[in-house]
């Protein structure tokens, strides 16, 4: 309950002339753990968050958010007569003629209590807290002086310096303890009896206390880490922090809270981005490794054909109903033995036929794998670029743009309305994507609504649009980087094969696919989404290219 008391004590001193005599106009909460009190000339913001408490005054504060909840209605119209702090405790009390508002910034009782003048609790900010009387809050302190330091009543010559500081000045937080050690040029484990030099510990502690009561306020920064102090800190400067000095605590605290919240948002967004990108990178790397194994089709086709020929050659030597057989390779000079797995329910000839048919469509499979590899490779390059940018950025606004892109790519889940895809640059992640000839981006619609979005929101008027003729299927768009670009016939044919594979006729041997520029594709009035009328089209008859 003592830690950081000095900051709250100074702030109460600064607030007293500002808020006393002011009438409470409103009292509500806009976000978790924060109470906003509206006064004649501004607002008081109070946070009882354990990791970031604050108490400051905003002159001409901004209007209330649309979503806010009224608190302590009985205080509206009351005039603040006093604001004080319980000695050596982070317990601030706003007094009015009829009521008191107790703000307890520490312990399990961390809460805001609305009481009558007899200190009977009328209402509380956190309703889930158990019923208790304010008097039950343990504020019994050691016999401390006005500066929250005690008289040394025992011999501590055998104690460490850190233990001495904690005993004499229990309200010193860790930063103040480090500062005292730094000014003494001593280590925490140094014994009191071993101290030498002109500065006695009591003198250093007294000087620190004096700064906390009367000095300026400082906000220290090192990259995106911020600290607030009531003294010029030699220890923080030694750690590489840079200081900004403020005349009053209120201004310094406002700056510190604003920048700390901003920094926390920075690290939250950055870590979320890095985690999503690294996960996606791992997925793409694994996918490419699997493709590398699968692309060795020609060698595996030759091995499968060899097994088929060996089974036919030795068909009279293969027992029926076995799960595998080992045969001599008569087609090799080394005459090595090859073990062949069999289906015991099939004859030797049927097993041989299985091996002959296993890679019958190897050319198609190889083409599909090549397209997949090109697509995954491009995606991996893009992920690496985003990773590099995310690690280099130092502004949260830049990270927010990457975050928005990852939401659009479905690599990060976001449930807020702001996550909706709006910009055309983000819209491309809503569709399936294939890279042709390591250059041309082809986008494929996923459903009727997605088709409509692809054709009428994403495609430029000079892009190539195509669709399987006469049957339901995906809209397919070949993106041009420039209007005057000419798409090679080979690319148009491959894209048409993808359109055929993403249609109801995907299993047909040949499918007619129409294509034209996107500007010649129009919606049909009152027709379902994805239904279009086209003109100036051409037709290609192609074999579907299934990537699955």
Overview of the molecule:
This protein has helices at 5-19, 161-168, 174-184, 201-214, 234-238, 249-294, 297-313, 348-357, 362-392, 396-408, 424-427, 448-458, 489-501; strands at 26-29, 34-38, 42-47, 54-59, 69-70, 80-85, 91-96, 99-104, 111-116, 121-124, 217-222, 225-229, 242-246, 324-328, 337-341, 432-436, 440-444, 464-468, 476-478, 511-517, 521-523, 532-534, 538-542. By secondary structure, the chain is α+β, with helices and mostly antiparallel strands. Strand 3 and strand 4 form a beta hairpin. It is elongated. Residues 417-421 have low confidence and may be disordered.
What integer is the average pLDDT?
88
Radius of gyration, rounded? 37 Å
Determine the N-to-C terminus distance: 64 Å
The coarse silhouette is elongated
Largest sheet: 6 strands, antiparallel
Spatial strand sequence of the major β-sheet? 16-17-19-18-20-23
What percent of residues are in strands? 15-25%
Total number of β-strand segments? 23
What are the low-pLDDT stretches, counting only 5+ consecutive residues below 50?
417-421
Number of domains: 4
Briefly note the structural class of the backbone: alpha+beta
Number of DSSP helical runs: 13
Percent helix, as a range, is 25-40%
Oligomer: single chain
